[in-house]
Amino acid sequence: MKDIIILAIETSCDETACAIVKNGNEILASNVASQIDVHTLYGGVVPEVASRIHIENISLIIKETLRQANMMVEEVDAIAFTQGPGLIGSLHIGTLAAKTLAWAYNKPLIPVHHLSGHIYANAFVKDLKFPLLALIVSGGHTELVLMKQDYDFKVIGETLDDAIGEAYDKVGRVLNLPYPGGPKIDSLAQKGNPVYKLPQPKVESPLDFSFSGLKSAVMQSINRLERNNQVLSVADMCASFQHTALNTLWQKVEKALETYDVRQFVLAGGVAANSQLRKIVKEKMEKNYPDIDYIIPPLKYCTDNAAMIGASAYIAYKKGIRADYDIGAKASLDLANGLNKGKIQKCI
Ligand code: KG4
Ligand code: ZN
Known about the structure:
Layout: E1 5-10, E2 15-22, E3 26-34, H1 36-40, H2 47-69, E4 78-84, H3 88-105, E5 109-113, H4 114-120, E6 132-137, E7 142-147, E8 153-158, H5 164-174, H6 181-189, H7 212-227, H8 234-259, E9 264-268, H9 275-288, E10 293-295, H10 307-318
Parallel strand pairs: 1-4, 4-5, 6-9, 9-10
Antiparallel strand pairs: 1-2, 2-3, 6-7, 7-8
The structure holds 5'-O-[(R)-(carboxyoxy)(hydroxy)phosphoryl]adenosine (KG4) and zinc ion.
């Protein structure tokens, strides 16, 4: 069978990314230009600034990615891009770049849902098996997704307020850690112990999540320590927050694994880079669910990147999914049916 090579572009938030992916699972080149240094100055992503930096970086990163793969645009089979969800100004830059390339070189244009990309990042480890349960944990999303086959997404659980990555970043801010808080809390938690008791978030619906209360609980706990003239251990608070957040996360996963008959469990999204979460998934899956296969995505492809968009686009390509040149970015693209729900997606 002929190899299918896809050039993919991702600009949904604050990373300008381009990758060239062969047959959905082999990365020929992948580059991510992070804007974190700039946004750290503001304590979070500033959408207008993100769009401007995407404009500065997009052509350079595409050119550099082609150079690393030793390819010309003429040689790729399709151009893929993240259509949504994300920051609308950021998404527009990637969408426009992809449309321009597809038009100029007469290549098929493939729109990709950002979360589908996160799920298919697991294809770099091994083939996905269906029915599959995906736990998506990122800065904008916390979702349990059931897939009976490729590109068949059913959201069976979601956050009712903050995403888990958002909670990590907000707690990071409360603890005066630089943006983004997630990786900092991850490393500090390894030096601390979960000694501060934080209430486990309670949600009526068995598969939905809630994380906004946890940030308030951290603040209350810090205030209480101050009132009692006790010294706050930042490492212990990081460990306590992480312990509570990941416990509640895993309880919902277990509930879903017990409710649905699945062959494989996959982890997805930026928070999948968390060392403790990766440990929990490995230990619990091997001990409690030996009959269910599981994948933890490669560390490099957990946070936003374009290789994952190329992996997802390969499936879309085979399914005949193509966009017309009038396609636009969608800030709130629904994973299940691709419709714009009209909500404004937050990045922080
Ligand atoms: O998937 P992603 O790169 O962007 C979105 O689509 O949102 O996820 C970014 C999120 C941020 O909230 C960041 O703090 C979190 O992932 N994150 C982590 C870690 N690395 C990134 N959270 C916890 N532990 C980490 N090691
Ligand atoms: Zn993401």
